[in-house]
Structure formats: structure tokens, C-alpha cells
Write a structure and sequence with these properties.
By secondary structure, this protein is α+β, with helices and mostly antiparallel strands. The chain contains 18 helices and 24 strands. A seven-stranded mixed β-sheet has the order 5-4-15-16-17-14-18. Strands 2-6-3 form a three-stranded antiparallel β-sheet. It has a three-stranded antiparallel β-sheet with strand order 8-9-12, covered by helices on one side.
């Protein structure tokens, strides 16, 4: 019997992914040597690139002393240095950020384009809407996967149409389920991490795809990297696709100590910054989405192979945290594994741990993914000390090819009263908490506006409420018959939690504030599967299991 390749995808469609992609596309071009951007919807060659420092036009963000001093100098000499629209276009873009010769992509459209070619070849079966619940273990060997039970109540109890998850056995199970995938996390729990490796740095990326106004002057392939706003810790991007379409997004990192960090509200303020608003004013939201990113880079690399399994993609530690690049690296690791497996099959060798180490792992270690990942692996440690230290650490790592950086270790998210000391009194915070609880809404909007952030001027086209964005932009939905995939393990820990950061950080407002001191609520029909709740709960009190549904936009 010929070898069969079967891919089980949790999302309901191959195109329902999220990523802001401006990539050098080195690995992708090796796979498609005659690739033209015109072959892929929403793709464009990178035409221009800028690094822009955004000043705070409102004075509401928390900026360290050195950044405030730099802002004053920039404003003082703005007429001489070209300061416009509360932004400074830095005349030199570090080489490690350059995407020259690369592509601007929609990850959804790219996935769909590749998937159709694979399916047409007859060599691969792709099954979307098939969540995998757990690995099948034979001792320490992965023997396959078990699909998720169907026909169950939200608590998992079997219903009238109960269908137990099917067991799928395989000679090799390839795990490519991203930073919060169930299979990867279960293997990490079972096998541990290699010495010196960890997955302690994360970010939530939130993005919006926008129809630009008809009179836009932006050319397809325009790439803008930003720093400094809406908070100094938050980086942003703005990429232009063909046909007046743009992708804009922000990254809210784990070292951002704000206990009411919210990706959606910050994304809206990012778009409202005068530098970007002049381009998007009068535009319309086409889609919206959010996802978690594993920001530990190469130090987040788990055991890549074992008996019966191999790991590729972002969950395998391939993301480059210096260049902010992950798609091409993830793609390349998949190609490396495929080449290794084909070589072993041709030689009639078993797909054992030893043979995979001698082929896949060896090839990966000799590749540009490994070399550049080693340069980048400590580049962002300095952000645990502060924003300025982090920026200096990135510059040092880039300039010295990873020889120098600024060390730092994670700190717990600060209590609300501590973080906002000097801006909000404990009494004000308590009053805001009570009011938000009575209205059944997260706290972040009230806290941000109390700290001077202006209200978002909703227009129903580009700027809209979070819930409208879920429906119109993310097209979020969940099929019936599956159990809730977010569980709060110990209600007493939820009750004692000061920050309730799972509520504030939830990208889809699927987790709601607790009532009467109980644990938070969860609505699976609003969940976008970003996994932010999992890594934001410092008490480890959230179980994030396999589930169905989520985003249904093909343009993110």
C-alpha cells in the first residue's frame, strides 16, 4: 500500500489563519522557484520599507524617562528633522528588519493556495474542521492521534448524537499545531524541554484587514514597521496588498506589565494615530483576527523528534524574535522534514528517532533557520528590564550577530493598584471595578479612559465595538456538539485573583467577568483560539483543550 499523508486541521477551513506577513520568502521561493506574487491572492512584492517611531499624540501612554526626553527633543526640532503627524521616519532601517526581495502575504490566502495544489496532486489529504484531542501513546512512542469527541454537551457529557473521537494510527505523527496546540503541549508535559530551553515569552498579535480609501497614495508592497505607540512595549505593522487593501496590526507582549492589556483596544488606537489615520480614514474593515505568538524563539525549541513523531513550525521554536519573522522559517522546517522522510523511505529505513535526528534535525541544524535563530535567541531579553533596555539589546544582538545582548528575566504582572500608582487611586480602581462588574464588561476600557485615553470614535465601518468586530470582521462561530475547550480548574484561585487578566486579555471577549466572586464565564461561540488566556494566567489555573470553531475569515 502506498504511503498516505493526512493532515487534520482544527479550523473549519485552511484559510482561517491569522498572521501579518511581510517575509523574505527565502524558503518559500526554494519550494516555488518560479513563484510570482500575481499567482497568490493579496500577495505583492515588497516595494518599500520604513521604520517609524510613533510619538504619543495624547500623552496617555506610560513612557519611561528616556523616551519622554526623546519625544521632547523630537518635537523641539521637528521642523528640522522632518517630524510630521506625531511620527519620525527613522532614516536607517536595521538590516535584520529588512524584507527586501520578499513578499507581502495574507496567510489565509497563501494557505489556501498551497492547500489546493497539494489536494490536486492526490498525494495529500487535508481534513479541516477535525480537531485532534490528544496523541496516542505507546509508552513514550507516539502511535498516532485521537480526534475530538462529538455530540457532547458543553461540559463534555455525551448527548444523543455522541460520537467518540476516532483513533488514527500512523508511522509518523507530524506535530505542527502552533504555540498553544494541544498535541505539542501534551508532549512537552510528557518529555519536558531540552536543558536551557523554555517557553516563557509570548505575545498576542491582533490585526485588521482594511479596504483603503479610493484616493490612497500607498503602493502595493509598502511595508511600515512601528514602535513607540500605543504603548512603548507594543510594536506595530502596516502592509499594503494589491487592490487598495492593507493589513495593520499590533503585538502585545508578555513583558508588558499592564494588568488590563487588551489587544483590540490598542489596535484601534494604533489605527487612530495621526501617522496611520491619514491613510485609513474613510476605509472599511474587511476582516479581523488575533493569535498567540511564541516569543522565546530558538530557546522555545522542544524535543524536535522522538519515536513516532517530529515537530515543525512555530511550535518547534522556529520563529526569529530579532527579525520578527516566522512564516518562512516555519515553512522551511516543514520542507526539511519532508525531505528527510522521503530520503529515509527511499532507503527503506524506519522513521525512528535516531534516523530522524540523523536527517531532519541534522539538516535543520545546518540551515539558515538555525544560524539566524541562534543570533536572535537572546535579542529580546532586555525588555524584561524595560523598553529602552530591550531596544538597546535588540540593536546589540543585531550588530554583533548575537554575541552581545542585554540579559533579563520575566517578572509577574503587577497588581492593578501598583501598576497605576500615581495615575489612579485604589479607590478609583475599586469604583471602576464595581461599575464594570455591574455592566458585565471588561475593565480595560474604563481604566484606559480614566488614564487619559480618548474614547474610540466608532463609525460602524472601520472602528466598531469588539463584539461587532467578532461578527463582521472575524466571522467567529462555533459548531454545536463539542465541549467547552477553556476550563477554570480551581474556582478558589479565580476568586482570589486580583487582576482577572484572562478577562482583560481575551481577544474575543469570550471570557467574561465573574459574578458574585465566582470564576469567570466562557462563551465558546466567541473564542478565536488565540490562547491568550492560557499564557496570561500566572497561576496555571486554565486548561486550554482541543475545540472547534473560531475565526472564519480567509483574508487574515
Amino acid at each position: 500500500m502506498p504511503w498516505q499523508v493526512v493532515c487534520y486541521e482544527r479550523a473549519d477551513g485552511l484559510a482561517f489563519g491569522v498572521s501579518g506577513v511581510a517575509t523574505r520568502a527565502r524558503g518559500i521561493r526554494v519550494s516555488f522557484p518560479h513563484l510570482s506574487a500575481s499567482q497568490i491572492p493579496m500577495a505583492a512584492p515588497v516595494a518599500s520599507e520604513k521604520l517609524v517611531y510613533l510619538l504619543d499624540p495624547h500623552g496617555a501612554s506610560r513612557r519611561p524617562f528616556l523616551m519622554r526626553a526623546a519625544d521632547r527633543i523630537l518635537r523641539l526640532f521637528g521642523g528640522l528633522i522632518g517630524l510630521e503627524h506625531s511620527a519620525f521616519e527613522i532614516p536607517w532601517t536595521p538590516s535584520f528588519l529588512h524584507k527586501k526581495g520578499g513578499l507581502v502575504l495574507s496567510i489565509g490566502q497563501f494557505n489556501q493556495w498551497v492547500g489546493e495544489q497539494l489536494m490536486a496532486s492526490g498525494a495529500v489529504q487535508i481534513w479541516p474542521g477535525m480537531p485532534v484531542a490528544e496523541p496516542l501513546m505507546d509508552g513514550r512512542r507516539v502511535a498516532g492521534v485521537r480526534l475530538l469527541d462529538q455530540g457532547v454537551a458543553p461540559d463534555g457529557a455525551p448527548g444523543p448524537g455522541f460520537l467518540p473521537g476516532m483513533d488514527i494510527r500512523a508511522e509518523l505523527t507530524v506535530i505542527a499545531d502552533g504555540p498553544v496546540g494541544v498535541l505539542g503541549r501534551k508532549l512537552d508535559d510528557l518529555l519536558g524541554m531540552p536543558p536551557g530551553h523554555h517557553k516563557r515569552d509570548w505575545a498576542v498579535g491582533a490585526k485588521m484587514v482594511i479596504d483603503l480609501p479610493e484616493e490612497t497614495s500607498l503602493e502595493p508592497g509598502t511595508v511600515i514597521h512601528t514602535l513607540g505607540y500605543p504603548e512603548p512595549e507594543i510594536f506595530g505593522f502596516f502592509y499594503v496588498h494589491p487592490e487598495r487593501i492593507a493589513s495593520a496590526g499590533v503585538f502585545v507582549p508578555s513583558w508588558f506589565a499592564n494588568p488590563v492589556r487588551t489587544s483590540y483596544r490598542y489596535l484601534q488606537h494604533f489605527l487612530l494615530h495621526p501617522y496611520l489615520w491619514r491613510y485609513v480614514k474613510g476605509g472599511r474593515m474587511r476582516s479581523w483576527g488575533a493569535k498567540s505568538l511564541q516569543e522565546s524563539g530558538r530557546r522555545g525549541e522542544p524535543h524536535l523528534v522522538g519515536d513516532g513523531f517530529a515537530r515543525i513550525g512555530e511550535g518547534s521554536g522556529s520563529t526569529n524574535v530579532l527579525t520578527g519573522s516566522g512564516v518562512d522559517e516555519a515553512w522551511t522546517t516543514g520542507v526539511q522534514l519532508a525531505e528527510a522522510v522521503l530520503a529515509l523511505l527511499r532507503e527503506d529505513k524506519p522513521l525512528s528517532k535516531q534516523n530522524l535526528e540523523a536527517t531532519y534535525v541534522r539538516q535543520r541544524r545546518a540551515s539558515w533557520v538555525e544560524k539566524e535563530g541562534r543570533i536572535a535567541q537572546r535579542a529580546r531579553d532586555g525588555f524584561h528590564r524595560g523598553v529602552v533596555s530591550g531596544l538597546v539589546g535588540m540593536a546589540l544582538a543585531g550588530a554583533t550577530r548575537g554575541l552581545l545582548s542585554i540579559p533579563g528575566s520575566p517578572h509577574p504582572v503587577r497588581r492593578m493598584e501598583e501598576y497605576f500608582a500615581g495615575r489612579l487611586s485604589p479607590e478609583q480602581i475599586a469604583a471602576l471595578r464595581r461599575d464594570s462588574a455591574l455592566r458585565g464588561v471588561p475593565l480595560h476600557d474604563a481604566v484606559m479612559e480614566a488614564c487619559g485615553w480618548p474614547a474610540v470614535p466608532y463609525d460602524g465601518r472601520l472602528l466598531m465595538t469588539h463584539q461587532d468586530a467578532l461578527l463582521l470582521g472575524g466571522k467567529v462561530q462555533a459548531p454545536p456538539g463539542y465541549a467547552d475547550h477553556v476550563l477554570f480548574l480551581y474556582p478558589s484561585l479565580c476568586e482570589a485573583c486580583n487582576s482577572k487578566i484572562c478577562v482583560e486579555m481575551c481577544s474575543g471577549e469570550a471570557i467574561t467577568a465573574p459574578k458574585d466572586g465566582a470564576q469567570p464565564g466562557f462563551d465558546r461561540e466567541k473564542c478565536v483560539f488565540c490562547g491568550a488566556c492560557l499564557w496570561n494566567c500566572e497561576q496555571g489555573n486554565i486548561a486550554f483543550r482541543a475545540g472547534a470553531g473560531g475565526l472564519h475569515s480567509a483574508e487574515n
